[in-house]
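TL;DR need structure tokens for one chain.
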Amino acid sequence: MRGGFVACLNGNSRVLDRIVECLRWHRGKPLRDHRDGLEIAAYVDDAEGPIVETQGGRTLLVHGAAPAPLAELQRRERRFAAIEWDGQRLRATRDPIGLAPLFHRAFGGGIWFSTEVQPLAALGSLAPDLEALTGQAAFVPSDARTGWQGIARVLAGSTLEIGPDRRAVSTGYWAPGELIGRYRGSRPEALAEFRERFRTAVARCYEPGSGILVSGGLDSALITRVAASMGRGLPRLVHVHFPDIPETHEQAYAGAVADAAGLPLRLASGDITPWDIGRELAGWGGIPYSWLPYGMEEPALAHLASEGATVALDGHDGDGVLGPGGSVWGALILGGEWRRLAALTRRHGARQLLRGAAVDLVPPYAWLRRLAGRAPSRTYMQVVAGYFTPSFRSRILTGDIDRWAWPPRRWRMRQLRPLVPGSTISFEQKELEAARYGIDMRHPFADRELIEFLISLPPALKDDPKRPKALVLDSVGDLLPASLLQRRKSDYMAVVRRRVDPARCVSVIRDSGVRLAGLDYERLFADVSTRSDAVPLFFLVNLARVHEFARHAAEA
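>> reply
TL;DR here they are.
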């Protein structure tokens, strides 16, 4: 987003004047305001604010939307962060997907809020939150916690209320689970509605001259085709490539997308330098997000900034909001969707139906695998859980969406997972990442109305167990170049393997002086010494990152 603010209730105004200068990336016209004990220092963007307004004895500070009562913002707006103060209670809230960042901290007798963490950190007296960092490393983050003791985020789709006793209570207002499976139209109607909603989502995000990050995949290709057809200033297309890493080569696909849209494609060289954890953390504003160093985002954003782009569209999480597949055969059988099952069987064959039904409906009993002379299979999270003590292990396994479960339950769990705050935090990360280049990053697939439509679709309309993104392909596949329909997904983990040295990660962990309660260091070090690839690379990256963060935080 453009613009940003720091606000405090019962805080020191001179301290506010000092720490607002620590807003590193969100800039605009300076604004200073004071209303009934709520002090505000902001950098205001003409379009997105923030805007301060007092009505009916209530002061509203709204970023990303026009001022309105919180209930109205929560009902209709797509991207916002807001604070409401009535003289007794302060309420802070964010949009359902968490596209607008908002952090808070109690310090020095006051309550402080900011659109970036740095001003809150500048208040002083900080320490790393080791319990939260352990969860971060284990892929089960405590959603509100940032890794700093005392600095938390207002959760996406929630309202944080602080009463006269200074006790903070967070309550969710967005419940996507209530929408699951409610759509009652036919599949042709769903395909037509998706097409229209997707076009609307792109139009809401697009501004003339916007940049588009074109990966060569389906999601960014569709955004490009729709944006180019709007006739409102041609978009700038950029594709990040790694010439000497063949597993990533998608330039031909990105070029086909650009040709179909009638636009030039600019190339940016991907980053293949050794992973620098400290530089990464500084670029993220001092928060240890869970992400792999693919070496793509910075080159693309730097290129667009050099071209004068101030808005960029990204296909990020098209996969997620469409809902990861899983247990579709079983869900269709148990739901009595015989017509859809017949159509899928004609398309894929009876053998696929029988095999899929067996996988979905019969638990993967370990004794059967041992009887057949095969080792029990383990999911990624089960492997990770083996490095933690029982209390953390149970948390990890509870959140494992890949483990077997009764099909309707597993399908529901997998549909909802991309929409919980622990997953949508990645949008916050990308917002802060782009803001340092003066770019407003927008995500058409994160459009609220599009998501609410997609989550309402039952498996019979939404999924094909053998065709990923079948809904998209059947609805808007005509917009895609033929070559994309045949492409195999590239392996960008090859870049990560080039940039990340597992031995260096182990050294960072070992030498940090930090020990996370719940992590079995003895087993971790033993496994890595036995074989370099014994520990999953993403897990090792996460561990190295949080240890380096904790070391720097403790020193600061």
